[in-house]
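Worked example 2:
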Amino acid sequence: MIRWLRDAAGNRDGGVMLIFALSLPILLAVSAAALEYGSIVKRRGELQRAADSGSIAGVNQFKLANADDASSVQVAIATAQTQAAVQATAGATLQAAAQVLGNHSSVQVTLTETVPLAMGKLLAMSEMTIKVQSTAKLSGTTRLCLLALDPAARGAFHLESSARITAGDCSLYSNSRHASGIEGESNAVARALSTCSAGGYTGNKASFMPPPATDCPVLKDPLADRAGPSLGLCKILPLWYNPKMLFDGIDSPLYGTQVVSTTATLEPGTYCGGLHITKGAKVTLKPGIYIMSGGPLVVDKGSSFTGTNTGFYFTGLRAGLLFDEDSVISLTAPKDGIMAGLLFFEDRALINLLPLPPPLSGKGPAPSVIGAVVGLREYRIISNEARNLLGTIYLPAGRLIIDSKKPIADQSAYTVIIARMINLYDGPDLVLNARYGTTDIPVPEGVGPSSADTVLSH
């Protein structure tokens, strides 16, 4: 045995192999430790980004109507946890905390994660704690540009097919506490400053940028105290406004009893039974309020409908709206008066037992929604030329359906949507601009105007 050791010691190659064999476990341990350290550094970066998203989302709550410290903290934590969970370390334990600093001007988020260490056990250190912190500061007010009011429906805010919403400077919100209060299906995409659901959301995470925060506080309807206009005497249009009444099919009163099929300029007032613009009509609207009482507003069959400083109020049975596929729409809301800033406004009565008929283009009715209130009025925009809808669309008891194949509202300085349900189908690109300072159309209090820059500190 002694002789063998001497021979091994004298053999250079054998000595190298012996040293290598003795060093191999140490080299492997060092390599594994280096990899583990690298993963910890990477995870710290992920947590920092999650904390940043949380602090920004939390402080953005103070831009929304009726926000308080509790809702800001809740949203900040929910957002940070949602993003941190995307690439969570197996076996790790995450704790999230948030607090409001200053006079509603800052939100601080702290994430603490305890990560198990595989190699740390060799050094009697079985785990490591990673702690990151982010503070977002701002000064400013509201940037809420979409709010689905239904408190319980599945898909209160729903996108499917290739539908897109672009709202880079403002926030999207659903008050539905349903686990699928927000839905994104197929190739739908929503880009926004932030997206929040009082319940949950379903869909590919890539459909929402950033991913929606869940379990957010319910927002009070910011326009709940807004009074509607009073009805006036019914306007009766003369027969010569409809010279094509016997051509291209008889006009159905279900689409509006007051019919225009020529070039015409209309006056504001109460249109009892609704208003039907059809058969290639070219209609210009004088400024003022147009009340659809007991019937819909329908624009179809290649007609155009243009109005500046015009507001539309919907009330009674069969109230609703249809801008059909081949219609051309350009509308801006009033800049003063009872409907200042409101482009569409409906009364708050829920019952509408006589639904709007399907589009005359043959596109068919919109898909039904599970859990929706029966009798919701429908406001359907399927026009491929409705690029200027400047103002606030306020439908507290209605379902807004956007089902076109081209951009909607992208040429508006701003568009705000508050409706009971908001559903996008087919392939529209709804653009919710927030260029409030570029127009004289006011933004209703509780939604809208400019926010301050957001500054992050770690």
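The two ends are 64 Å apart (CA to CA). Helices lie at 2-10, 12-60, 69-84.
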